[in-house]
Amino acid sequence: MVRAGGQRTPWGVTTSPRVPTPAVSTMDSHQLPEIGWTAAVSRRRFLQLGAAGAGLLLGTPHAWAQQAAQPTPPAKPKTNLEDALKVPRTKYSLPGLFPGKVVQVEDAAVIADGRFVPSVVEKMFARGVQELTGQNMQESFKLLFGKDDIVGIKVNPVGPGLMSTRLELVQAIIDWLTGNGIARQNIVIWDRFDFMLTDAGFTAARFPGVKIEGLQTMVEDLPEGENADHSRWLDKDGNHVSAPNFDREVFYWADVEGPKDLPYLNQHVFNGKHSYFGKLLTQRMTKLINVPVFKNTGNGISMATKNLGYGAICNTNRLHQPLFFDVCTEVLAFPVMRDKLVLNVTDGLRGQYDGGPMPAAQFTYDYRNLFFATDPFALDSVCHGLMVQKRKEAGVRVDEHPKYTEYLRYAEKLGLGLVDPAKVKVLHA
Questions:
Q1: Neighbouring C-beta atoms of residue 73, cutoff 10 Å
Q2: CA end-to-end span of the chain, whole Å?
Q3: Three-state SS for 336?
Q4: What is the DSSP string of 82-149?
């Protein structure tokens, strides 16, 4: 079958019309018209606060690593994980239809003359999906989706134009879905923060007909002073305006209090001991595709499991020090995640080997790889090994302590994934 414009598509089915995507410079891909990625990031007040401000929003592993390295680490706080594990599983439940299977696709032609090539991204995506499922693109779709599904595509918009999920890759995913019968209005590109989606180029103009939604808003220039006006983000009762976006009946509970100061509430919606899942996940979306990027977070990684573990709930900063990587395992154990996540595609078209999870241009490189799995823990175990290898090659001092991968083995114990090297199968397509 062919597109409306007469070009053959790798999906084997006719795709919906879309806005043409020109090839774009790898260093300014899909920038906002007025600002590049550095300005889009640096103008944000949370980054102007320095490392502490960035950590409050995105999380850094330093405090957790220091605590975990103590001779007798503090006891892990209690959580409501057992409630999640009691719920019966479905055929789609993690580790998915292909446990322990990871597909790596590399293509040098995906970057030409310093630009990403959309047609090559499409072909890489098709190769990866077909190698993962062993079926063509139409049959692969039928394995994972129905035409009536509401599909959420979880992107990572941090570091717009530099290290954010590539728009070309998301376009390839949308073409596959719509080409097999899912209506554009039944596709949602989402992240936790609405402004980050806009900065990274996930807009209605770029993806017409597709819903683009953040779980919450955040005031970037939080007013200061005793008599400051907070009406932009607090309602008349003193609640965050995004509070109705979260489901009070579905939550990750941990015996850790969230701070009560205004900057924390602005960024995290709630404090207390509950991290609520977004209603977008609990009440609307029926299937999830996870599209993280290939980057580090200290000696660990910030890829498939962290993109969801810290992206699907609110009130997260309280969890960083006592539970940092364990959150990536335990949040994914909840049915709202475990039973809906059917595909993970780690975007390694560009990689970042140091300075993460924040974007750091001096540590980025053109990697030209995509990684595919239904099992996000197998995927992260493979990518963690590749990240360690890259960091060593780049001369970065690497700490290979097992604490940085214990959350992956924890997931295997819970039956959420396979990470034992003897059980993980890596294929190259």
A1: 13
A2: 23
A3: helix
A4: HHHHTSPP-TT-TT-SSTTEEEEEE-GGGEETTEE-HHHHHHHHHHHHHHHHSS-HHHHHHHH--TT-
Q: How many of the other CB atoms lie within 10 Å of CB of 146? A: 12
Provide DSSP, 236-286: TTS-BTTGGGEEEEEEEEEEEEEP-SHHHHHHHS--EEEEEEEHIIIII-S
pTM, two decimals, is 0.88
Task: Give per-10-residue mean pLDDT for the chain (429 aa).
Answer: 36 42 37 36 40 53 61 84 97 98 98 93 98 98 98 97 96 98 98 96 98 96 90 95 98 96 95 98 98 96 97 96 93 98 98 95 97 98 98 96 96 98 97
Using CB atoms within 10 Å of the CB of residue 22, give its burial: 0 to 12 exposed, 13 to 18 middle, 19+ buried. Answer: exposed
Instruction: Calculate the CA dihedral of residues 308, 312, 318, 321 and round it to 10 degrees.
Output: 0
Structure tokens at 73: 């680490």
CA 108 to chain centre: 25
Give, as one character, the DSSP assignment of residue 234.
B
CB atoms within 10 A of CB 93: 20
Tokens at residue 272, please? 């207390």
CA distances from 354 to 51, 67, 313, 364 (A): 15, 21, 26, 8
Instruction: Kindly give the pairing relationship between strand 293-297 and strand 341-352.
Output: parallel
Distance CA 56, CA 268 (A): 9
Nearest one of 43, 374, 29 to 206, comparing CA atoms: 29
> What is the C-alpha separation between 378 and 400, in angstroms, rounded?
18
**Residues 200, 205, 206, 207, Cα dihedral to 10°:** 110
